[in-house]
Amino acid sequence: MTKSRPGAKTRTLLLRVENGLAWPKSDDLVSEEPLEIRLKAGSRRPEAKTVAVTMRTPGHDFELAAGFLFAEGVISRRDEIRRIAYCTDEGAPQQYNIVNLELASGSLPDLSPLERHFFTHSACGVCGKSGLENLRLRGHKPLEDGFSVPAEIISSLPQTLRQHQSLFDHTGGLHAAALFDRSGRLLASREDVGRHNALDKLIGWAFLENRLPLGECLVLVSGRASYELAQKTLAAGIPVLAAISAPSSLTVEVAREFNLSLIGFLRDSFNIYAAPERILLG
User: Fold this and answer.
1) Does residue 154 sit within a domain?
2) pTM score, whole prediction
């Protein structure tokens, strides 16, 4: 049986309680469903391998798959991809929750970067030194200087992002990532129940549009700045990462090690934790 394509929001019934009284009403919830990302290679007898399963908000799934694989070092160029499609195998009930990314090459690439990816989860207990060494092993180098942005532009970004969070307006409870140029012009934004997914979708958009690296842009995330968000920002070559909330200590270490301008607690004012030279004051 073919499953219908899931939407980004789901209607639900609830009981509203106020002043000791309750009444039924309906409301929109942000959808959360699994997305399985499969790599395929070869034409006659294609190899196929599931490389990740993530809980995401449906929408921009191809960007999510491409952005995730790029940020994790599995693919590096747009022309490595022959085709991206939902699973259309006969009898697959979850076809819109499975994305097949077909490679132009005849074999699957080295997937060890994905194996190293799993140490980044906060429960793993791997030290910060290992995290920094992992980024060096993947070929990350300090970002170049040259990009700068006025402080007043940075202060204006949260309001611009908020104006483009249409799904948040309907549901609340989800994250956003937005890409801006040095004048504060919004280039693209993506929303998702997962903060990492939102940034993967944004980077995937740039990857599929052949816009990488993004050395003349800055990125704003709606929540806190984690190690993994910093890693993805580095992979995309973005010199400035700004967050509405706080950074972690490892995120600050990464930013200082790789010359990434890191901004936290961004409202009308903000904190600069690393590479302040790119922020023009006064």
Assistant:
1) yes
2) 0.88
